[in-house]
Amino acid sequence: MLAMALPAAHAARAPASDTVPGRGVAEIEVVSRDATTSAGEQARQIDAIYKRRFRPYLDPVALGRTSDADIRQIFQGAVDAGFYTLERNYALDGAHALQQLKMRGLATKGDYDDLSSLFIRMRDTVDAREIARQGKLPTDDIPDIQDMTGGRTGRTLISVGEGNALLQRRSFSIDQHGVQMVVVSSPHCHFTVNAVADIAKNPALEKAMAKHSTWIVPPYGSFDIADTRQWNVAHPAESMRLIYSPDEWADIDTRATPQFYVFKNGKLQKKIVGWRGKNTEDELISTLNQLGALDPSQKKGPG
Predict the structure, then answer these.
(1) Burial status of residue 267 (CB atoms within 10 A of its CB: 0-12, 13-18, 19 or more)
(2) Which residues contact 1 (CB under 8 A, 6 or more apart)?
(3) Which single residue of 64, 220, 231, 264 has CA 20 to 30 Å from 240?
(4) What dihedral do alpha carbons 14, 120, 180, 272 form, nearest 10°?
(5) Average pLDDT, the chain
(6) How far apart are CA 119 and CA 136, in angstroms?
């Protein structure tokens, strides 16, 4: 199973200093590396650290009086907190700190790249492009996302299309009448690749998955447009779409892949984590069989 560990910032990281913000940077890193803690608990811990170590400095007057070294740590802490939680308020704090770095002649292209990348991870390509422009960075590789939701709230997914097609954000809902499976996946996860290969060897399971499953990619790491498009060409039955915001999927863990969430009439019936070859394949078959989602003429049970 691929844990969705997040990459370090692109800019050269200043060593965590023995100041209040410096200790905050170090504490956030410790929490972010704890793979035993749930995403929600990690976010709560990071928020508590952030309020204690950084928030007192973020008043405009206080920020202006903060030392150069601490401004650097505040910027780094805001970006790190944003990378690990995808909470927009951290990105906005990072923008304020970056403005201070700029006023002091300390902002680097790497700083602009880090903050632009953070906005991209948050699917805010408008602000990502603006930050990149301010840093005199290229913007050609920052995509546009066409909003096709019509203002509706709830779950949404980004369809990548083919070639140079526009990315489209569309509403998504769990089917309230019938069986539906949501597969948290990644084109970079070898367990996801193994799952698809094993499913393809079982015609009944392959048919059921093609009919009932939706494959979604978490918004951690890079904005995997090219890789997702390549995957979708190679695996049309397991075509992937990108999650727009984890907040819209709060009841689904998006930190690791693959995960299989099986619903019937809108209610979660089964959650299967990881891919352990035939054991997981049999578990999927059994679950779908119990829910009446396997074609009777092609049933091939565990064994």
Answers:
(1) exposed
(2) 189, 191, 256, 257, 258, 273, 274, 275
(3) 264
(4) -10
(5) 88
(6) 16
Percent of the chain with pLDDT strictly greater than 70:
89
pLDDT band at 254 (very low <50, low <70, confident <90, very high): confident
What is the C-alpha to C-alpha distance for residues 166 and 211, in angstroms, rounded to an integer? Answer: 26
**Residue 197 near residue 209 (C-beta atoms within 8 A):** no
Say whether the peptide bond before residue 246 is cis (omega within 30 degrees of 0): no
Going 32 to 37 to 42 to 45, the CA torsion angle's sign is negative
DSSP letters spanning 231-279: HHHH-GGG-EEEES-GGGGTTS--SEE-EEEEEETTEEEEEEES--THH
Q: Give the separation between CA 36 and CA 34, rounded to whole angstroms.
A: 5
Is 220's pLDDT higher than 80? Answer: no
Question: Has residue 4 got a pLDDT over 60?
Answer: no
CA 59/CA 185 separation, integer angstroms:
40
CB atoms within 10 A of CB 126: 11
H-type helices in the chain, by residue range?
20-32, 39-53, 60-65, 68-85, 88-103, 109-121, 125-134, 190-200, 203-212, 225-234, 278-290
Which one, of 134, 137, 135, 117, lies nearest residue 125 by Cα? 117
pTM strictly above 0.70: yes
Residue 291, classed as helix, strand or coil, is coil
Contact 298, 207 (CB under 8 A): yes
User: Do the beta carbons of residue 125 and residue 145 sit within 8 Å?
Assistant: yes
Pairing of strands 259-264, 256-257: unpaired
pLDDT band of residue 7 (cuts 50, 70, 90) is very low
Amino acid identity of 218? P
